[in-house]
Amino acid sequence: MRRVAGGSLWAVQTLSRSFAAAAAAVATSSSTAAKGCGTTTIRHFSSVFNVPSLPQALPALPALPALAAAASKSSHSELGVSTRRTLSTHSRNSGKRYVTSTADPSEETITGAPAEGFVNMAAAHADKFTADDKVKAKEPEIDMDESHLQRKKVLIIHTGGTFAMKPNNVGSLDNSPGNLQEMLKNVDELQRAEMPLFDVKEYTPLMDSSSMAPTHWLRLAKDIEENYFLYDGFVVIMGTDTMAYAASAVSFLLENLGKTVVFTGSMIPFSEVYNDSRRNLIVSMIFAVSTDFPEVCIFFHEKLMRANRTTKVNSFGLAAFESPNMEPLATLAVNIRVNARLPLPQPRAPFRAHKAIETGILVVRLVPGFPAEVLTNIVEKGAIKALVFEIFGTGNVPLSQSELFKLLDLARERGVLVFATSQCLHGCVIFDAYAAGRVLIQAGVTSTVDMTTEAVVTKLGYLLSKYRDPQKVRELMSRSLRGELSDESIYRSRFFNRDAVVSKLICRCG
Q1: What is d(CA 325, CA 323) in angstroms, rounded to the nearest whole number?
Q2: Hey, is 2 helix, strand or coil?
């Protein structure tokens, strides 16, 4: 343990190491890369240490040109950690980038000769430094364990739910403010050096997930945005009942997300001797600091799943969630098996959180004999902006129900967008698979392919709050924005090529 002045001195020492490591890495790079295209590919070094991104920390250094010049003489081994850990170097305040993206989204390039990249960057800020910036005598001293410089940091956002509940005076599970922090103090695994450091942000009041509304989804997105450059990843602990809705919504609200946000919870409270809370949290924290998943996920039981592909399927089992139309991003076994072809690519634009979501969306599950006329008043009064029908199979509706088609005509006249999703957990909507579905195309209904209802509702809320053009919304609903839907052609080939497959089988058998 050593004591250092908080702020300037710590930033000088830490970033001087980063410059040294960067320059050394550049010096050892192949001459082909340096001579061939005039750019040098480097890894991000700011993510290795718990410091702000490089542009944020520049004003804290008194003599960057000198540091940069000396950096090339230093050994890369000073860094002491793998350069594979990468994070975005957006400036927190301005959103500007000091580097430009390359074909490899985990890397960045600085145009020009290797040494000039750092020297020019330092020189541009040299006039901002004064002698007082070197050491501020009155800055508070902090305890700094050098081993922590290599540990990443996670923000745990606790909204409530079963995870940290305790029985109340009548024996029912209820939220208990402050209970999560107390329990985490006794989790030995979280103190291990290979685990990330963490802070807990607890909402007041804590709430059951059934009480969480779109306003709370917006708050989650806002809190992640405000802390985006202070943490390497995020874990959201909440109740399971509406987790798929909240996580799907946040996946759309967070635009150009370059870090991992993991939603998790439990079916058994942490306070119970036998529970699923402990492992769900520990594994979620591990995934949160991984650079392999720049997206919003749900981790539960043994699977890491894309949030907007996930739905709750069991109210009693520990495997409470499934991703019906997409394989898990990763699965726990003796080793963690990562499906490397599935994660989304790193973004190529600045991160930001969208600040609005439309709530005028009605979901109707068709049942045989459904009286469509009950919806007429709702559509006529303009109380909704979009109508989502959960229909049968691949997209079928009762052709004999004339009131339903009158409703669809009325919706089109009033500017109400109409979408269709399947009631089936697995599969896709293909309107022209059957005559009973083809009529929906003529009625102006848009297919949502294989999206979950949770993804359909939250994606619609996001798009309707962002675009006024109905045609634009329809177009984007059929396009994958965050990996929320599959290519319809995959399903079409399976459905319409059945005869060819059967013929091949018959020929082989013959």
Answers
A1: 6
A2: strand
DSSP 154-204: EEEEE--SGGG-EE-TTS-EE--TTHHHHHHTT-GGGGSTTSPEEEEEE-S
Q: What is the distance between the alpha carbons of residues 231 and 236, in angstroms, rounded to a whole number?
A: 13
Q: Is-catalytic flag, 458?
A: no
By the 8 A CB rule, do 248 and 455 touch?
Answer: yes
Residues 6+ positions from 124 with CB-CB distance below 8 Å = none
The DSSP-derived string for 400-414 is: T-HHHHHHHHHHHHT
Q: What is the pLDDT of residues 381-440, one digit of tens each?
A: 888 999 999 999 999 999 888 899 999 999 999 999 999 999 999 999 999 888 888 899
Q: How far apart are CA 135 and CA 61, in angstroms?
A: 10
- Active-site residue identified among 109, 159, 162, 310: 162
d(CA 354, CA 250): 9
Shortest CA distance to 23 belongs to which of 79, 57, 71, 58?
Answer: 71
Q: What size, in residues, is the chain?
A: 510
Structure tokens at 473: 């919304």
* Among the listed residues 318, 323, 316, the one whose alpha carbon sits nearest the alpha carbon of residue 297: 323
Q: What per-residue string of b and e applies to 190-201 under the rule 16 or more CB within 10 Å gives b?
A: beeeebbebeee
Query: Of all helices (H) and strands (E), which one includes residue 220?
Result: helix 214-226
pTM: 0.71
Backbone φ, ψ for residue 307 (5° rounding): -60, -45
